[in-house]
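From the shared-data thread, chain only:
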Amino acid sequence: MSPHARAQWQIHFCVLLWGFTAILGRTITLPALPLVWWRMLLVTASLLCFPRVWRGLRGMPMRLFACYAGIGVLVSVHWLLFYAAIKLANASVGATCMALAPVFLALIEPWVMRRRFDPRELLLGVAVVPGVVLVVGGIPAAMRIGVAVGALSALFVAVFGALNKRMVERADPLTVTCVELGAGAVFLTLVSFALPHAAGRAFAWPGPHDALLLLALALACTLLPFALSLVALRSLSAFNVQLATNLEPVYAIVLAILLLGEQRQLNAWFYLGVSVILGAVLAYPLLVRRASMPPPEMLGTAESHGRLE
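Structure, as tokens:
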């Protein structure tokens, strides 16, 4: 198998593992706040076992550390809203809402990166609106609050994704992940103490079943795909990676049908709406590629970024 083909399999395996985050979020019985707190804490503790991370922390300027910590707070809010959407609705709805992230990113990234706005990105935003309407109409009324929370979560993905893209080359990726998730865990700790009666629930020790699933979420669905994606990025272009990661909601919805039987809670309008949203999201990089295809030697060196999902 060629290095490129191996990298393609690796990145799709990573996306499949990211798809399991929604399934585990639905299966873990903990509320969203302690679930996210434990996930961030476990990943941070695991990263601190690497000497490379400690070297990166020692060499990181305090101002840069503060910037990444601020982004980590945004990551924690995104995860909190993402798992809240899953608890309020289901894994399929939460995963579908994540497909809205590229739409928000198309509007936010030009402002953050200080580049010219691309009209095709506005077209992407307009194209997904009918899909969102169909999704909302295809779920029980009690789940619609989950769509609103999930859409807000996707907005936070776009914000911290654009900020990470702006600062991606300033520090080691593993060190950045450690700082961001560690800061997110500290932020959620402070939030727990600030909210009445929340601290006890947030820091409650999970039962054996939840503990195993939390370990799977932190190690198998966060650290492992992050490490594999870093290896795969050496052989893939940004276009290849973006096209693969845009398939994550598809994997999550298929897994939710196979493992959780969620198709019984949703009707055909929901899946038609999902098809419209994903069609728009997947079509955008294809349109961009046709319009301005970079030369082959640039594809292998294009910026690609791991994601926290």
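The radius of gyration is 19 Å.
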